[in-house]
Design brief:
There is one protein chain. With 294 residues, the protein is mostly beta strands. The chain has a single domain, classed as Lipocalin (Beta Barrel). It contains five helices and 18 strands. The strands form two sheets. Strands 10, 11, 12, 13, 14, 15, 16, 17 and 18 form a nine-stranded antiparallel β-sheet that branches.
Amino acid sequence: MNLYEALNSIETTEQHQAVIPSYLYGAFRRKSISFYNGLTDENTIVYWFQSRSFTIDLRLKHPTETPVVERQGWIGDTRWDTQTELLSWHVKDHANYQNHVQWPEPAKLHAIGNCILEFSPSNVYVEDWRQQVQHGLFLGLRLKRALDLTSQQFLDLDGGLIICDNHFAFSLTRLPHDQDQVQQLDLNSNALTDEDLTAIESFEVSVRFDGIKRLSTTHIEAQSNFNLEGFKVLDAHHLLQQIEWYGRSIELTFEVDMYIPAYSFQHSTETTQDAQAWFTQQKDHLAHHAEIVL
């Protein structure tokens, strides 16, 4: 069964079940990151996909030329502290492409228009994120169980799929023996073998935004289609999918984290009436060169 057919049997998510502020829902591209020392990066490719309770993150220096050991991607549980209004993530050791934590600080977030400004509490950086989608399907599937169909053994894998209209993000971690191998490696070493490199990049985080996978931690997946076939409905909140994963037939059990068939993602924020009047009065100057930037 195709995923879209399976969704006909899934219950929609109630809005009151939010874990984080709803303005964080969606698919975001990083426009820039500025650091405490005056440096700014506007070229590194970074995507942040946010479902109701989990995040998929992809970071590449170049669409196709990023060295295997320098790619970044992860999937993790999203946590929101209502008192401090800080966003943080719980990422399991095997749910990170790298074998160390690259971004240890929580995030202080501020929404303006279609931007999410992310400030580190230490002020070491600020990131400018842009919402990429406006209206459409909002689906988050989080992997809960992976069964090796040959051995009938459960595998310690993490993963998920987030769809925001025409933007897709998918993550599936390494098979346990590959993860054990990578965990012992120094990724900065010049002595890595071809076998090591194959194990390292078997952790997949892929993003699609024009019909096929365009960006991925795994080079063999970069230009292939997302696999949306082989689904079964377990119940109104769980789907099964059978896939081939690095030579193994695996059954994945996904829990529905978010499902709203037609969702409007935030593209504007509120301000005061006085501020709106100021903008209108000054729009010949303020809006002369202004345009929506994604």
